[in-house]
Amino acid sequence: MNRLSVLCSFSLPSVFALVLLPSCESPPATPQRPVLTVLQSSVSIGDPHIASDSSNQRGILFTIYEALVKLDEEGNYQPSLAAAWEVGEDARTWTFHLRSGVTFHNGEVLRASDVVATLGRVLDRAIGGSFGTQGVYISYLGTAQISAVDDSTVMIVTEYPMADLLDLVVAMPISPASELNRLPGEYVGSGPYEITEATDTQVIMAAHDQYWGGSPEHLEIHWIAEGDAEKRVEAVLRGQADIAVDIGIDGWRRITEHGGALAHQWDSEMAIIFMLNALEGPARDRRVRQALNYALDVDEIIGEIKDGAAKPLNGYLTAHHLGYNPETPAYPYDPEMARNLLAEAGYEDGLTLVFDIPSAMPDEAPELARLMVEQYSHVGITLEIVEHPDRAAYSEMVREKKINAAACFDSSPRSTYRVLREKLHSGLQGPWWEGYKNEQVNSLIEEAQATVADTERQAIYRRIYTIVRDDAPWIFLYNPTRYWGVGPAMTDWKPRADGLLVFS
After folding, report:
1. Which of 210, 230, 250 delimits the end of a domain?
2. How far apart are CA 232 and CA 225, in angstroms?
3. Is 253 part of a structural domain of the chain?
4. Residue 499 and residue 467: Cα distance in Å, rounded?
5. CATH for 93
6. Closest CA to 459 of 327, 328, 323, 326
7. Is there a single domain that holds both residue 157 and residue 68?
């Protein structure tokens, strides 16, 4: 995966000064279509600078806003508000050269001061958020020096090497400095569409007629909230909607069999896992952690819970992540091996474990727990389940490291660095770290962040991947598949590499 690539036919400079160049020519003008109608389970927008793993929210936000960089359909970083950038040999100094001619929805022209002010808000604890400002981004950039070199140049100097900085800035939507104090409530970005109406049930956008990328494809986009997946499918089949989001495998089958519409499927970047408590209790023992993986028939779980709409995980990453290794074997279903490992760890007579699960996110957590209770009983593990209906409180419990033996979670950051730093580096002890310790892994994570060249950093990440898979700090379950229904007018559309619906 080429994460720093060059547009047009230019040769790469030194790996210590990697620069992205603007596209060679403007896209040709195309006739505008009147209205694009998108149905999804919710249309909540919220504060653009408070982290959210909701793809529904992020799809809307990144149609209004733009970041310094963006991802293309293959997952490569491309210019957005930054037309070019370079990173120094120390992997600490990043310089972003802003695109000229960018106009915000309020008519103001993009300046470096807008970027600096926006990032300042992203890192301001005062704006709150359930899990901290922009999730945990303040822990990455809270000590960074962010400055405007001139009106068109932004410099970020981090305290320590951060070769994966783009993984962070891609998720930070830029606002004009003059509008920041009106958030949330007024949404003024530079994206191809601007909001004309927003309620709990629909968001209506109009094309931004001064968009730097040319005339948007549609005059309006209507985002409609419809909680029933079957109704979303029906709307596409009847021509009442152009795109239906998250229709499930049943919806996908129905559209595929129906004809007259298309259905897309995409292996998400989400990993459904259980984080094991390695701070105290039986899961401190690597053999117990491995046994918990060997004892589960993940294929059966996927068949019963997801109707086959998922793939078994072979570690903590998906195919969308830098450093994922498809050659790493998943834990096979081997109850005999599980029993032997438990006996070696001193639990030949079995053991009792308590697992924490949320009532939703992932929605299938209660059913998943039921199957795990059954399967673990075959190897002498008695599993007790504690269900938590308050998702925010549940997440805070995990952050405070107050879980029982394990906690169900959907690990969804697309950034490999975020997964490693927030969950697996024992020196940093991030928000989702639950006690796993491996000094070699710590050193390799730090080495990777001092390595600018993508191919070399990927090789380091793959070494980490093998080590962590074998250490089994998590119970590795599955990578869900997402499905969209698409009407005849959008047959040329496909989901972006990060699964977002972003239109231009």
Report:
1. 210
2. 9
3. no
4. 29
5. 3.90.76.10
6. 323
7. yes
CB 159 within 8 A of CB 60: no
Q: Yes or no: say if 442 and 426 are a contact pair by the CB < 8 Å rule.
A: yes
DSSP for 379-430 reads: TTEEEEEEEES-HHHHHHHHHTT--SSEEEEEE--S-HHHHHHHHT-TTTT-
CB atoms within 10 A of CB 260: 10
For residue 18, how many other CB atoms are within 10 A of its CB? Answer: 18
The tokens for 471 are 């250490």
CA 199/CA 177 separation, integer angstroms: 25
Which tokens sit at 124?
């301001």
Longest Cα separation, the chain:
72
**Which tokens hold the place of 473?**
């700090």
Residues 281 and 135 in one domain: no
In a domain, 414, yes or no: yes
Q: 206 and 276 share a domain?
A: no
- Helices 248-258 and 229-237: angle between axes, nearest 10 degrees: 20
Specify the number of domains making up the chain: 2
**Cβ distance 478 to 304 under 8 Å?**
no
CATH number, domain of 432, equals: 3.10.105.10
Are 175 and 290 found together in one domain? Answer: no
Is the separation of the CB atoms in 477 and 298 below 8 Å? yes
- Is residue 141 located within the same domain as residue 283? no
190, 338: one domain:
no
Is the domain of 198 the same as that of 321?
Answer: no
Asked if residues 332 and 296 have their Cβ atoms less than 8 Å apart, the reply is no
Asked, for residue 354, whether it belongs to a domain, the answer is yes
Across the chain, which has 504 residues, the per-10-residue mean pLDDT values are: 32 37 42 83 89 80 95 87 97 98 97 97 78 64 96 97 95 95 93 95 96 93 96 93 93 86 86 97 98 98 96 95 94 98 97 95 91 98 97 90 95 88 94 96 98 96 97 97 90 75 76
Claim: this prediction has a pTM higher than 0.85: yes
Instruction: Count CA within 13 A, CB hemisphere, residue 33.
Output: 12
DSSP 8-state secondary structure symbol assigned to residue 27: P
Residue closest to 336 by CA, chosen among 381, 284, 291: 291
The 3-state DSSP class for residue 468 equals helix
Kindly state whether residue 23 falls inside one of the protein's structural domains. Answer: no
What is the span of the domain harbouring residue 377?
A: 271-482
Report the C-alpha gap between 58 and 500 in whole angstroms: 7
- Start-end of H helices in 65-209: 112-122, 137-141, 166-169
